[in-house]
Amino acid sequence: MNKSVSSLWGVQKMEIVSKFNWDTFGHFRHFYLRGFSFGDRMIKGPCQIWIFVSFNTLFATGSLIFFLSAMLFGYMYLFPTYSPVINSYGISESIVSNGTCNVLNGSWIQDESYPLYDASRCPFAEHGFNCLANGRKDKGYAKWRWKPKNCDIQRFNVRAILEKLRGKRVVFVGDSLSRTQWESLICMLMTGVEDKRDVYEVNGQKITKQIRFLSVRFSSFNLNIDFYRSVFLVQPGPVPRHAPKRVKTTLRLDKMDSISKEWIDSDVLIFNSGHWWTRTKLFEMGWYFQVGNSLKLGMPLTTAFGKALDTWASWVETMVNSNRTSVFFRTFESAHWSGKNRNSCKVPKLPSSRSHGRDRSPISDVIIKVVKKMTVPVTVLHVTPMDAYRRDAHVGTWSDNPSVPDCSHWCLPGVPDTWNEILLLHLLSKNGVPLQ
């Protein structure tokens, strides 16, 4: 055989062989190489080289297809009823379509049809969260949609939701992040109301941080959406006798907040807590934990939070009618403070490509652990992983007080709208309402 042709065939042969993953098909390597050697022996001259190159390529490809087909049929024979394992964090089977889709497992994708509303046209969106009205120039942060890995959250029909919520009472309980979600839901639903005057705060209150109770009524639908400010969920108490001077207030881990009785008569209850369970907002302000008559000065924060949630869980199990009320608990919302003392707030234009460890939180872990032990159904909205990538969506310096940066709260419209899309998906799926 001509040396140059023989050399060319040798190179081509090695390229074909190298394309296979021998880690997977190692047992068949000898078989393939014998096939190639057979082709070499058959070649008698340069006039036949291209025929036999094709022969060897076809031989290798056909063998691989035969092997993969055999493996597939063997797998189907041995595992005919395979179904994937999903960590659904309390998601009901009704919204995990066909057992294959966890709506909380996904990624953010750009969508020019977003945002879902204009905060400047919604009187219930706090001015401090309306980043565009406060001078933010880039609008890209509001054009990201959450896309579950194996399904999709379709654009909801606002009128269908309002009809389904007709005559209901939806209650949010928690800190300012709960208030943000409450505002977001009201703004989302207002896009389906023709006469905006039919939507009003029942006491004529303005949306502020200090008010403990706010209620917005959609009068045309006999629907109330309420917010109760209860940052710890459990009850603050007086300082016990003989307590150290550094103790200014106690947090009664074994007693629910005194306003909890007002949450019971509801159709949907959404809780959150976590951002106030820090040293700066507790110990440095003179707040310490108490159980019964005992002051717990050395109790770690996560342990105390767990005890508070045990109290909450017991309250839900004994006081809430689970046949009427759907209960949700949203996990910790990722903050994106940076710097040595966690006091620097840099807000980029785009979501992060990595979570940088913010997809996990001890607070969220406690919530999931407590809910798993409960005897009544509670759905965990585990938003911690999805929020971890949205550093771009924080208020930053675009609040009503730009001198104080904010890498905890979110712009509206923005990330809290996604929390509500998932909340509504649960409610609609539970009640059999089509999403569009």
TrEMBL record:
<dbReference type="InterPro" id="IPR029962">
    <property type="entry name" value="TBL"/>
</dbReference>
<keyword id="KW-1133">Transmembrane helix</keyword>
<feature type="domain" description="Trichome birefringence-like C-terminal">
    <location>
        <begin position="155"/>
        <end position="424"/>
    </location>
</feature>
<feature type="domain" description="Trichome birefringence-like N-terminal">
    <location>
        <begin position="100"/>
        <end position="152"/>
    </location>
</feature>
<protein>
    <recommendedName>
        <fullName>Trichome birefringence-like N-terminal domain-containing protein</fullName>
    </recommendedName>
</protein>
<dbReference type="GO" id="GO:0016020">
    <property type="term" value="C:membrane"/>
</dbReference>
<keyword id="KW-0735">Signal-anchor</keyword>
<dbReference type="Pfam" id="PF14416">
    <property type="entry name" value="PMR5N"/>
</dbReference>
<dbReference type="GO" id="GO:0016413">
    <property type="term" value="F:O-acetyltransferase activity"/>
</dbReference>
<dbReference type="Pfam" id="PF13839">
    <property type="entry name" value="PC-Esterase"/>
</dbReference>
<comment type="similarity">
    <text>Belongs to the PC-esterase family. TBL subfamily.</text>
</comment>
<keyword id="KW-0472">Membrane</keyword>
<dbReference type="InterPro" id="IPR025846">
    <property type="entry name" value="TBL_N"/>
</dbReference>
<keyword id="KW-0812">Transmembrane</keyword>
<feature type="region of interest" description="Disordered">
    <location>
        <begin position="340"/>
        <end position="360"/>
    </location>
</feature>
<feature type="transmembrane region" description="Helical">
    <location>
        <begin position="49"/>
        <end position="78"/>
    </location>
</feature>
<dbReference type="GO" id="GO:0005794">
    <property type="term" value="C:Golgi apparatus"/>
</dbReference>
<dbReference type="InterPro" id="IPR026057">
    <property type="entry name" value="TBL_C"/>
</dbReference>
